[in-house]
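Lab notebook: predicted structure, single chain.

Context: the supervisor wants predicted structures on file for every construct in the current expression panel, including those that have not yet been purified. This is the next one on the list. No modifications to the sequence; it matches the entry in the shared construct table.
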Amino acid sequence: MILCCGEALIDMIPEQLAYGRTGFVPHAGGAIFNTAIALGRLGVNAGMLTGLSTDLFGQQLLAELQASNVNTSMIVGSERNTTLAFVHLYDGQATYDFFDENSAGRMLQSEDLPEISADVSAMYFGGISLACEPCADTYAEFLLRKAPDCAIVLDPNIRPAFIQDEARYRARMEKIIAQCDIVKFSDDDLGWMTGDTGAGLRDQADQMLAQGVSLVIVTQGAKGATAFHVESFEVSVPAAPVRAVDTVGAGDTFNAGLMAQLTNGGDLTKSGVRALTPKKVRAALEFGAKVAAVTVSRAGANPPWASELSDS
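Prediction complete. Output recorded below exactly as produced.
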């Protein structure tokens, strides 16, 4: 099982109402939630670990996980509120205003964590759950404890507005990255993390590989994605051509496609990632781009089912 560890929240998506007004419609979301949903829909054995409210939005999130065949046995229930993210779209690009104080997800503590299923072989982390305390420390501690036994995949999905103490955040991320097998960055996130925005992608990726990562993947939106492997090869693929509606959940779905391809090839293990060939990396990137293109082609984070990809 791939266990997705992190936030589940409600994206409030703008919708045009009568008389020119704009309303907001609640859609299930969150970076880690979106990836779990996409993995389940692709037929991968996936589970979710998060703090989830028992309120009506939490019930919506739980129902959608179960409907997408995601294992919910490791979810921690709470009477605290669900995090809300109000989405603003400009030319198809999404920005967010979050309401997260004292939420079910944010307040997750180490003592709340359940027993982890014995069949968990890989774990996926990232998003705002690694920036907002106390859950950030909870997930970091959990990741460091499980890293010797599981393949660790990370997408920091950095949102500087959430980072109250940059030095503390960077120190946490450096510890985490050193234990990761795969790290996926957007080009902006990689520049922010390395602090070297003037350097080329190769030099920036080398800084991550030097910390112990086996595979660094950098996405560049419409320009596609490039992977840098510890064995000194790199692979680039173009973005799949698509008429974009919005980009909500695109990167999350890309991550799911990448992990699904590696899982199906038996390569999503610590040794498997380190032994990847350029051909296998290319196939994983291409499938990630293919899956993400479907999400981009429709409103909100709505990853495709495997049956939707069979003829495309």
